[in-house]
Amino acid sequence: MSAPRMRVAVWGDSRAGINFALRLEMAGHTIEKLEDPAQLDRFDALILAATARELEGAVGDVEKHVRPKQIVIHTSLLAGVEALDELETRGCLTIAAAPLGDSYAVGTLDEVADTVIGLLLSEIHQTAETVPEAQRAERAARLYYAEMLGELSAWAALKAGIIEDFMGSSFDLDADDIIDAYPAAVELGMARNYRDVARMVGEKKNMEELELWAVRKEAPWPSNS
C-alpha cells in the first residue's frame, strides 16, 4: 500500500530535512521550499528542516499558519515528537523522523501518525525504529561520529585514487546537531576523537562553524577516546 501523493512544504535548510524531502520527491511527492509560512494552507504536509537548536524557532514561525490534520514532520535526532507539542494542540498530525543510516528514529503520538510515517518510509526504502527520548543524545553522538568518519574515509579514498569519483556525501551532517551531541560524546568517553573528526570534516566540507568549534573546544581531560 502506497501513501497518497502529497504536496509537501519544507521550512528550513538542515541537511537531514532537505535529504528527507528529496527522497520523498523521488518517491513521487511534490516538494516545495516554503518562502512564507502564510502559504501553508496549500500543502498537505510540512517538513521542518531544522536542527534541534533551531526547532523551537521553526515551530514558532509556522504555528499560526498550520491547520488541523496537516502532517508536520521534524528530522532532528536530538529532539522527540514532543518538540512539536504546540502544533499538535492546533490539530496537526505530528511526527519526529530522524535518519539513522538505513532506518529512521521515529516518534509519534497516535496510530494514525504511525501509519503515515510507516507508509512514507516504506516508499523511500527505509524502516522505522523507536528510540526512547533518554537514548537520543547517545545515539546521535555515535551516529554523527560514524558518519563523520565515513565522510573522511570517502574523501581519503578519492585522494588516494582508490575511487575515481565522489559525487558528494550521502550523510546528513548538520553542524549544530553535531556540536549539540558533544556532551553525550563526552559521557561515552569519545570526546577527543569526536572533536578531531569534527574539525577535519569542518575543514574538508567548508563547515566553518563546526571547524572553529572543534578548534576552540578544550578537552575536559588530557586523554579520552
Topology, please?
Blueprint: E1 7-12, H1 15-26, E2 30-33, E3 45-49, H2 52-62, E4 71-74, H3 85-88, E5 93-99, E6 103-108, H4 111-123, E7 127-130, H5 136-159, H6 175-180, H7 182-187, H8 191-204, H9 208-216
Parallel strand pairs: 1-2, 1-3, 3-4, 4-5, 6-7
Antiparallel strand pairs: 5-6
Helix pairs in contact: 5-8, 8-9
In summary, what is this structure?
With 225 residues, the protein is of the alpha/beta class.
Structure description:
There is one protein chain. The chain is of the alpha/beta class and 225 residues long. The protein has two domains: 7-131, Rossmann fold (3-Layer(aba) Sandwich); 140-217, N-(1-d-carboxylethyl)-l-norvaline Dehydrogenase, domain 2. The chain contains nine helices and seven strands. It has helices spanning 15-26, 52-62, 85-88, 111-123, 136-159, 175-180, 182-187, 191-204, 208-216; strands at residues 7-12, 30-33, 45-49, 71-74, 93-99, 103-108, 127-130. Strands 2-1-3-4-5-6-7 form a seven-stranded mixed sheet, sandwiched between helices. It is globular, with a radius of gyration of 18 Å. The chain starts with 6 loop residues before the first strand and ends in a 9-residue tail after the last helix.
